[in-house]
């Protein structure tokens, strides 16, 4: 398939604000790609190159490269060679050229990179050059586009969108699902064949939020058949999300964004090897504990998560953490603190997939396996196993089962008790220095890749994940550093793209290391300058703590943050996942 066809489609997608029209344009492109892959000129049935090109098309239409990093950025792509007169580049040509670029390292690699980049761009027409540059530096990356592409796969293959979406969540990628949907003789069966595979990460379930425990309990979907229903509350640990896969001694650790960080976290690997089950998929959080067992501040955990530190230099187009390649060694400074894994869910144990099993049963398995690595939790009265059984099963006091059975007292009393008990649990967690709690429905299934209604988080601290829109040069001690950041909340447009609404600025909470890092990072994202203000592409998500919201005539949303301060940069979230202006308004009351 020619790159030009994807460029045409991408232009058509950008030109319309209608989600349906975007979906139709992408579906049409995928149909053509599928027809080409299955064309009679290919020997028998779909040919491998065609299937692979379909996967490349899906990636490019989603605004993604297949390579994690190319070593190319805005600066290296500023001056391009004269364009080719007519389109000849295939998707394969481009993917192969970028794969070769991503492997360049060591002495002489800079010159080789410049030569290879120039050769690739010289083979591209003007429109292809513009597209490729935007693709490589991440300008086309739009989380909202992912879901349009998934829907387009369903439309092109004439399959239910739910079946495609589920396969994508379980496979952790859209490309292979698109090939199966569009090229296999029995697409529905092929989609059903995507199941959890030990060793391959699935998109993690996400939580909704509520201002307090009572609101969280209200928000949970109520139970179904008699004998079901019920809730539990977990401590919410403020660490790094981990998904751990174990097949005997082979243990792999993945982040929230499905990056493989196994080599950086040998202590997690060791802890999981000690668990009494040889085939496992566990979901949890890794944190640094102090000698007293209390959680250390997030910054210490972050020093091991190697997220923003792991990014390359300013001229690096790749997003997020690096994936451990063969031979990658942990950087020495990252080993100075020890992570302890805590698990709050289990997706597979001993040959059984548990994704479609209710939480109450998954927790019973977790308590049997997790031991002291299970997250502390409180069951709603009357919903858990008998206290003795639970103690015996967990072997520890990490699982507290308290209160009278559900058959004692009225339903109202039970609801009241639950709210009071869960609130007490929340307050204790916060006193201990935990981030908050997550209230969960015991009926809920594991909603891979979705912000499921079955998990509701409650945090005492007011925080928002906002996007940096611009940054100002510092003065005094911060001379030469990009310091004061302009913060924007997301405003989704009807066509699925995002705009941003500025809510304020802050230069508080930044460590020296952060200042170093952000100066480099924001220069790489620079789009223009106005006096001491550097405008940047709205891509970097930052977690901000604030004391409240006040009315403002200065900012376009009519609201401003009070005492905003930086907690951390979030490289595990894209701008399309940042908090929206509607969420901010709901916090303002
Ligand atoms: N016991 C727990 N159950 C579920 N999630 C937990 C728990 N403890 C900590 N977490 C963390 O809380 C997150 C749930 O919130 P959400 O899905 O909204 O992700 P997030 O946007 O990264 O949230 P946050 O910034 O609040 O951590 C999970 O991603 C996980 O990392």
TrEMBL record:
<dbReference type="Pfam" id="PF04675">
    <property type="entry name" value="DNA_ligase_A_N"/>
</dbReference>
<keyword id="KW-0067">ATP-binding</keyword>
<feature type="region of interest" description="Disordered">
    <location>
        <begin position="378"/>
        <end position="398"/>
    </location>
</feature>
<keyword id="KW-0436">Ligase</keyword>
<dbReference type="GO" id="GO:0003910">
    <property type="term" value="F:DNA ligase (ATP) activity"/>
</dbReference>
<feature type="domain" description="ATP-dependent DNA ligase family profile">
    <location>
        <begin position="332"/>
        <end position="491"/>
    </location>
</feature>
<dbReference type="InterPro" id="IPR012308">
    <property type="entry name" value="DNA_ligase_ATP-dep_N"/>
</dbReference>
<keyword id="KW-0235">DNA replication</keyword>
<dbReference type="Pfam" id="PF04679">
    <property type="entry name" value="DNA_ligase_A_C"/>
</dbReference>
<dbReference type="InterPro" id="IPR012340">
    <property type="entry name" value="NA-bd_OB-fold"/>
</dbReference>
<keyword id="KW-0234">DNA repair</keyword>
<dbReference type="InterPro" id="IPR000977">
    <property type="entry name" value="DNA_ligase_ATP-dep"/>
</dbReference>
<keyword id="KW-0479">Metal-binding</keyword>
<dbReference type="InterPro" id="IPR016059">
    <property type="entry name" value="DNA_ligase_ATP-dep_CS"/>
</dbReference>
<protein>
    <recommendedName>
        <fullName>DNA ligase</fullName>
        <ecNumber>6.5.1.1</ecNumber>
    </recommendedName>
</protein>
<dbReference type="InterPro" id="IPR036599">
    <property type="entry name" value="DNA_ligase_N_sf"/>
</dbReference>
<keyword id="KW-0227">DNA damage</keyword>
<keyword id="KW-0131">Cell cycle</keyword>
<keyword id="KW-0233">DNA recombination</keyword>
<keyword id="KW-0547">Nucleotide-binding</keyword>
<feature type="region of interest" description="Disordered">
    <location>
        <begin position="291"/>
        <end position="333"/>
    </location>
</feature>
<comment type="similarity">
    <text>Belongs to the ATP-dependent DNA ligase family.</text>
</comment>
<keyword id="KW-0460">Magnesium</keyword>
<feature type="compositionally biased region" description="Low complexity">
    <location>
        <begin position="316"/>
        <end position="328"/>
    </location>
</feature>
<dbReference type="InterPro" id="IPR012310">
    <property type="entry name" value="DNA_ligase_ATP-dep_cent"/>
</dbReference>
<keyword id="KW-0132">Cell division</keyword>
<dbReference type="InterPro" id="IPR050191">
    <property type="entry name" value="ATP-dep_DNA_ligase"/>
</dbReference>
<dbReference type="Pfam" id="PF01068">
    <property type="entry name" value="DNA_ligase_A_M"/>
</dbReference>
<dbReference type="InterPro" id="IPR012309">
    <property type="entry name" value="DNA_ligase_ATP-dep_C"/>
</dbReference>
């Amino acid at each position: 398939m020619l790159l030009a066809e994807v460029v045409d489609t991408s232009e058509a997608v950008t030109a319309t604000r209608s989600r349906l029209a975007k979906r139709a344009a992408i579906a049409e492109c995928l149909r053509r790609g599928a027809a080409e892959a299955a064309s009679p000129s290919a020997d028998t049935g779909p040919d491998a190159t065609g299937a692979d090109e379909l996967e490349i098309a899906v990636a490019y239409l989603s605004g993604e490269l297949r390579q994690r990093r190319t070593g190319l950025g805005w600066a290296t792509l500023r001056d391009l060679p004269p364009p080719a007169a007519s389109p000849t580049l295939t998707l394969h040509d481009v993917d192969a050229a970028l794969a070769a670029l991503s492997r360049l390292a060591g002495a002489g690699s800079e010159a080789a990179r410049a030569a290879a980049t120039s050769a690739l761009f010289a083979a591209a027409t003007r429109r292809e050059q513009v597209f490729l540059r935007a693709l490589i530096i991440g300008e086309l990356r739009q989380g909202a586009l992912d879901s349009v592409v998934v829907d387009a796969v369903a439309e092109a293959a004439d399959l239910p969108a739910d079946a495609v979406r589920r396969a994508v969540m379980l496979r952790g990628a859209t490309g292979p699902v698109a090939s199966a949907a569009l090229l296999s003789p029995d697409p529905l069966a092929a989609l059903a064949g995507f199941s959890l595979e030990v060793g391959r990460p699935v998109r993690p379930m996400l939580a909704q939020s509520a201002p307090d425990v009572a609101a969280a309990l209200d928000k949970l979907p109520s139970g179904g058949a008699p004998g079901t229903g019920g809730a539990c509350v977990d401590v919410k640990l403020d660490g790094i999300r981990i998904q751990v896969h174990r097949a005997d001694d082979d243990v792999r650790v993945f982040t929230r964004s499905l990056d493989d960080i196994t080599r950086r976290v040998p202590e997690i690997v060791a802890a999981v090897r000690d668990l009494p089950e040889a085939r496992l998929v566990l979901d949890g959080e890794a944190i640094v504990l102090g000698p007293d067992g209390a959680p250390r501040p997030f910054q210490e955990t972050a020093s091991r998560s190697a997220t923003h530190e792991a990014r390359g230099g300013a001229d690096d187009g790749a997003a997020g953490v690096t994936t451990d390649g063969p031979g990658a060694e942990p950087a020495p400074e990252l080993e100075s603190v020890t992570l302890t894994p805590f698990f709050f869910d289990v997706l597979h144990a001993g040959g059984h997939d548990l994704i479609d099993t209710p939480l109450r049963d998954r927790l019973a398995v977790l308590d049997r396996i997790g031991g002291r690595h299970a997250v502390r939790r409180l069951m709603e009265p009357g919903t858990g196993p008998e206290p003795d059984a639970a103690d015996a099963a967990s072997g520890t006091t990490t699982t507290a089962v308290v209160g009278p059975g559900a058959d004692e007292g009225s339903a109202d009393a039970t609801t009241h008790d639950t709210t009071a008990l869960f609130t007490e649990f929340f307050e204790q967690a916060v006193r201990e220095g935990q981030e908050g709690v997550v209230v969960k429905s015991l009926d809920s299934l594991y909603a891979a890749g979705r912000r499921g209604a079955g998990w509701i988080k409650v945090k005492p601290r007011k925080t928002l994940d906002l996007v940096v829109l611009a940054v100002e040069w510092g003065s005094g001690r911060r001379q030469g550093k990009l310091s004061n950041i302009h913060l924007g909340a997301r405003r989704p447009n009807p066509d699925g793209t995002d705009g941003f609404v500025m809510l304020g600025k802050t230069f508080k909470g930044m460590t020296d290391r952060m200042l170093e890092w952000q100066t480099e990072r924001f220069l790489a994202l620079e789009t223009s300058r106005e006096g001491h203000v550097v405008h940047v592409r709205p891509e970097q998500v930052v977690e901000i703590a604030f004391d409240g919201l006040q009315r403002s005539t200065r900012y376009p949303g009519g609201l401003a943050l009070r005492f905003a301060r930086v907690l951390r940069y979030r490289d595990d979230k894209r701008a399309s996942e940042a908090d929206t202006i509607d969420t901010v308004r709901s916090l303002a009351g």
